[in-house]
Amino acid sequence: MRNSIDKRFVLVTGGAGYIGSHVCKALSISGLQPIVYDDLSTGNRSFVKWGPLVEGNILDRDRLRSVFEEYQISSVFHFAAASIVSRSVVSPNECFLTNIAGTLSLLDAMLQANCLDLVFSSSCAVYGIPSVVPISEDAPRVPINPYGHSKAAIEDILNFYRSAHGMRAMVLRYFNAAGADPDCEIGELRAVETHLIPLAIAALFDPTRKFTIYGDDYETPDGTAVRDYVHVADIAAAHVLALQLLRQGFVGGPFNLGTGAGYSVKEIVSMISEVSGKKIAVTFSDRRVGDPPVLIADPTNSRKSLGFNCSHSSLSEIIGTAFRWHQKNFHVHS
Ligand SMILES: NC(=O)c1ccc[n+]([C@@H]2O[C@H](COP(=O)([O-])OP(=O)(O)OC[C@H]3O[C@@H](n4cnc5c(N)ncnc54)[C@H](O)[C@@H]3O)[C@@H](O)[C@H]2O)c1
User: Fold this and answer.
1) Alpha helices by DSSP H, 97-183
2) Is 243 found in the same domain as 100?
3) 65 CA to middle of ligand 1, Å?
């Protein structure tokens, strides 16, 4: 039986996670109704504020099918993934199972319900170690770890589903998602954290934690790795634009979601110190295998065709919102 609410839902797999929850908020603000499908393996129940939560694993085909039967779902945003790169290296099976088999199970449930619109969370990891920076979407995909390979494989699978089944999929390749909801309702919070900014801020609040910089001998201006940090609120807004385009029948992409500017690890650390007024105790370690020196997006196509706008992505706003969120969260949990 279909849900009685006279609205068509946008299914958000991984909607209890960092980026997915921000996208749910953006959907809700623009008058759309998200429904979250998440196994809460890295996500947070308290981040599901803008629609119902269905707890389930994307590998559970029956559960997914029942969601499509119960709710009238017009389109899907697919965030759920095993996304820790280092873990994908030691446990490729887990990565490929969740990412590739999980996506296949989602796609089959979508086809069965005749739901054909999908926005997929890909990653700059598909580019591997690029030979040209900034990286445009037509740069070769040469991933160097199972995570990057899984994302590239899903991009290919979506192309095949497009030809075979008329699926309309838009692929968004995020660079480094960062920052937190400007209203401080949600932010970046995972039990096992691997991302630079939350780790550095956590070291401010908890002196027992050390913040490690991996590699200060890269060929970059200060020797530390340079990344393109894009505010999660800008990524969220891009998803609403992507859905509007898909609904108008637009076929295109993939699109890079990055700002076109890069910041080094040392620049991030010094901005955190500036915003917080505190110094971070830093230790240095060797480079991690497979960490490229510089990853910066060429966002020309996403700006032109998607209308992607980086209005929240100045470094001060990224660090300012992330700091305020962690400050609030630290006080709640300490
Ligand atoms: N954070 C980034 O900078 C970044 C960059 C590039 C791409 N991405 C991609 O964006 C997506 C979201 O990333 P995030 O940073 O929000 O991660 P996250 O870990 O915060 O969120 C992932 C969510 O998916 C859920 N999930 C994981 N496995 C699941 C499964 N098998 N079934 C159901 N739910 C499951 C988790 O519980 C969590 O809520 C991922 O696909 C990731 O690969 C993220």
Assistant:
1) 102-112, 146-165
2) yes
3) 21
